[in-house]
Design goal:
The complex is a heterodimer.
Chain A (H helix, E strand, L loop, with lengths): L3 H22 L25 H25 L2 H18 L6 H13 L7 H17 L2 H6 L1 H7 L10 H7 L2 H14 L5 H4 L4 H4 L5 H14 L5 H5 L2 H10 L18 H5 L5 E2 L9 H31 L1 H5 L3 H11 L10 H9 L3 H36 L10 E2 L9 H5 L1 H7 L8 H17 L1
Helix pairs in contact in A: 2-3, 2-5, 3-7, 4-5, 4-9, 5-14, 9-14, 9-20, 16-20, 18-20
Chain B lengths: L1 H26 L27 E8 L5 E7 L2 E6 L2 E6 L6 E4 L6 E4 L4 E4 L4 E4 L5 E4 L9 E7 L2 E6 L4 E6 L4 E5 L20 E3 L5 E5 L4 E5 L5 E6 L16 E4 L5 E5 L4 E5 L5 E6 L18 E4 L5 E5 L4 E7 L4
Classes of the chains: A mainly alpha, B mainly beta.
Chain lengths: 453, 328
């Protein structure tokens, strides 16, 4: 295998050289001269790539996901995952300018479903599907090593703080709302807000509007103390990955054999994604009965929350529909007709130049608003459902004897494996049978030395 | 306590991030956007150093109701096409004469033998008395004929639609065509983003074609081989800016070029190697008030043996005469 690496590298270099020269050949029109003071706008999307290169990106993603899953589940190598995430950061982040990414692909998929005039590229579709498929089988290995946004945040984790569970769970609901809004806006053709507020794309491209750079730097600074803030508090794709990962059969495990309950893994996880063993106190009949009552209450509450969410959604559709430029423009031109004469207003001037009549604009706005009415209703219902399920999960206690990663929240970064004394013993290749008791003693000693120190 | 403090800081920062995103999102609306930071401010390029101005406007010819399309200078008379008419304006003050021609002429060229008039897809040959002698074959649907040039027995036809020069003899037989391609880097071929594609033959018999997309003037042999070129892409006065400039050219007796630009309208003189000699008419002399989307049209230019430049101002439908300023 090792002998083949130079050959593979040679093929990759040749591929890069050939495709690079091909791309250069696409420059066929001389660029205008802008040396004399003109400030060029920041590009919002990278230059188009040759189709072959887009497929190559998919291949790279597939390779990274496969390797990450192998490293997390089979090889159990934190170091491997770390270096793979650095590669993804360089390739998908800095080389590919953060585009295309699986997170943003949510919007392409949503638009393609609801707008028959929009055809999604096979690349965008695969970028959306592949990480979800891998999450379904192996957990969130995409987050561990393939996502450049996750990788850049992971590298700045210095002194992560564990915040109270109720705050964490409340913050964890924001991505659900963000997902619902981004799908609604994309499906109605209004806006791609995930891309617009991608905080790291400005850093990847070494260029961007002030707000983008500000958000990127702020997230990185915050990430020193609250690990992966974007992934945990904003990432809408994380919601989908979390759902898939909960069903994963071959998810990363903390220890390769018997857990000695040393708690080192829990301390090592900067994401508070380790679940502790369920204490005996929670297994009493009284607690079980109490939880059952609450469970039934929450189950009964779910339809109410769906209806309430749907009602709030439908009531807010007029406000939300103003996100669409046509609706906003129609309202603006109705309320302030004098703006038609304002030559400085580029949006209005662009509309007037388009040749469409004002009546056409109003009709179009009415159609879009109707889409928003239905979409907001569904969005509200979805948020209500998600809230209900989240509440229900609070009272579901599964029998758990060992420390285990939370399949939904775990990014499969492998830190816990690295800290697990059982794992380290195994990896050292000690031939003798693992003595659990002696390990426990060793850990206790280490902890006491630490606390004295 | 330390942990609690950090938790509060984390929550505050997250709240600020969410707040910033929401405020930005709500403010990114058509009536709430600030000034366009990328607006191209061109006013500074309209200012021309008075030292560079070599001509002054002395008189003009009003074309009345004629909506002119092109102009040519021959034997001390200006020939102007427009509507369904060809107007001949003698420069010695004699009254103008008018001939009826086929409608929608786009360009014309005159020599001692004939008047050649270009239409969108074909060329027609007229006598000096205005008699239609020949209609040449159509050059195809995508053809957009923008200008003509005559050299002895050849008529060069600029086809902006197909980015090519078509060569005819005087009888209307096609002898060839070329697209300005050559093996060298310079021979990319004609880049013609709009229907502005001019050509001229100078007094030495050299054919010069404007490659507007490259802001270049290119010299070709009669059979279409590139012999040389010069280009000047710049926002400054000594170059050409925008998508398609110089939009129109003519040649002086000594081989210098008179160029006419669209967008920021101005007329300049360059020597044969492309060095700016002077400015005939600065942008200030042309229509000042235009709406945001209205583009200044490049005047058609002709020049006589005394260096007097005749500019057909399409905005005002007048021929403006610029005479050299006498040096002291």
């Amino acid at each position: 295998m090792l002998k083949k690496i130079p050959n593979l590298a040679l093929i990759l270099i040749l591929f890069a050289l050939l495709t690079g020269s091909f791309l250069q050949a696409q420059q066929r029109f001389p660029k205008p001269e802008f040396d004399t003071g003109y400030v060029q706008p920041d590009p919002t999307t990278p230059e188009p790539r040759a189709m072959a290169l887009e497929y190559f990106d998919v291949l790279v993603l597939l390779a990274v996901l496969s390797l990450a899953s192998w490293l997390a589940v089979k090889k159990r190598s934190r170091r491997g995952l770390l270096w793979l995430s650095v590669f993804s950061l360089i390739y998908f982040g800095f080389y590919r300018d953060g585009c295309i990414c699986s997170i943003g692909a949510i919007q392409n998929v949503a638009l393609s479903i609801f707008d028959p005039g929009y055809a999604i590229s096979i690349t965008a579709l695969l970028f959306f599907i592949l990480p979800l498929l891998f999450a379904l089988f192996f957990g969130r290995t995409f987050c561990a090593a393939a996502c450049p946004l996750g990788a850049i945040q992971d590298l700045v984790v210095i002194n992560p703080v564990s915040i109270p569970s109720w705050i964490r769970k409340t913050l964890g609901f924001i991505p659900v709302i963000y997902l619902a809004l981004s799908v609604l806006f994309a499906a109605t053709g209004s806006d791609f807000i995930i891309c617009r507020y991608d905080p790291f794309v400005g850093i990847f491209r070494m260029d961007g509007p002030f707000l983008m750079i500000f958000l990127g730097i702020t997230f990185l600074l915050l990430g020193m103390f609250y690990a992966r803030p974007y992934c945990r508090v904003f990432c809408p794709y994380g919601v989908l990955l979390s759902w898939m990962s909960k069903f994963s059969k071959w998810h990363l495990s903390i220890t390769p054999s018997e857990c000695i309950k040393c708690k080192l893994c829990k301390d090592s996880c900067p994401f508070d994604a380790i679940e502790v063993p369920v204490e005996q106190a929670y297994r009493t009949p009284e607690v079980s009965r109490k939880n059952l009552k609450r469970f039934i209450l929450y189950i009964g509450l779910i339809p109410v929350l769906i209806l309430l969410g749907g009602w709030i959604g439908s009531k807010s559709h007029i406000f939300l529909s103003r996100v669409h430029p046509d609706v906003y423009l129609a309202e603006l031109m109705i309320s302030q007709p004098e703006l038609k004469e304002d030559e400085e207003n580029l949006d209005i001037q662009a509309f007037l130049e388009s040749g469409d009549t004002f009546e056409q604009l109003v009709d179009q706005a009415a159609v879009i608003r109707e889409k928003f009415r239905k979409g907001s209703l569904v969005m509200g219902g979805f948020i209500g459902l998600a809230l209900g399920i989240t509440l229900m999960n609070q009272v579901v206690f599964r029998r758990r004897e060992d420390y285990e990663p939370h399949k939904g929240d775990c990014f499969s970064c492998g830190r816990c494996m690295d800290y697990c004394p059982i794992d380290s013993q195994k990896s050292k290749g000690e031939s003798q049978k693992l003595n659990v008791e002696s390990l426990k003693l060793k850990v206790e000693n280490q902890k006491s030395v630490k606390s004295k120190g | 306590m330390k942990k609690r403090g950090l938790t509060i800081v984390i929550l505050v920062i997250l709240t600020v991030i969410i707040g910033v995103i929401v405020v930005d999102f709500l403010n990114n609306r058509p009536d709430r956007r600030g000034e366009n930071p990328y607006a191209l401010e061109v006013d500074q390029y309209k200012v021309v150093d008075p030292e560079l101005i070599s001509h002054k406007e002395t008189r003009n010819f009003d074309l009345g109701l004629l909506i002119a399309s092109d102009m040519s200078l021959y034997d001390r008379a200006l020939y102007v096409s427009g509507n369904s008419s060809l107007v001949v304006i003698p420069l010695d003050g004699r009254p103008a004469t008018m001939h009826e021609i086929l409608p929608r002429a786009t360009c014309l060229e005159v020599d001692q033998g004939n008047i050649f008039v270009g239409f969108s897809t074909y060329v027609a040959k007229y006598s000096h008395e205005g008699e239609l002698l020949q209609e040449w074959p159509h050059l195809g649907e995508s053809t957009v004929i923008t200008n003509l040039a005559i050299k002895e027995d050849k008529v060069f036809v600029a086809d902006a639609g197909n980015r090519r020069i078509v060569i005819f003899n005087r009888e209307g037989e096609q002898e060839g065509e070329f697209e300005g391609k050559a093996e060298s880097e310079a021979g990319h071929g004609f880049i013609i983003p709009s229907a502005n594609f001019d050509l001229a033959v100078n007094s030495f018999g050299e054919l010069w074609v404007v490659n507007t997309g490259k802001h270049a003037l290119e010299n070709y042999s009669d059979d279409g081989r590139m012999r040389g070129y010069w280009d000047k892409a710049s926002f400054d006065i000594d170059g050409f800016m925008g998508c398609c400039n110089p939009a129109r050219i003519t040649v002086m007796e000594d081989g210098s070029f008179v160029t006419s630009e669209k967008g920021i309208v101005r007329i300049k003189i360059y020597d044969q190697s492309g060095e700016l000699i002077s400015v005939v008419a600065p942008p200030a002399l042309f229509k000042k008030e235009r709406s945001a989307n209205e583009e200044g049209k490049a005047p058609e230019v002709c020049v006589d043996e005394n260096g007097v430049v005749y500019a057909l101002d399409f905005d005002r439908d007048v021929i403006r005469v610029f005479e050299p300023i006498e040096s002291e």
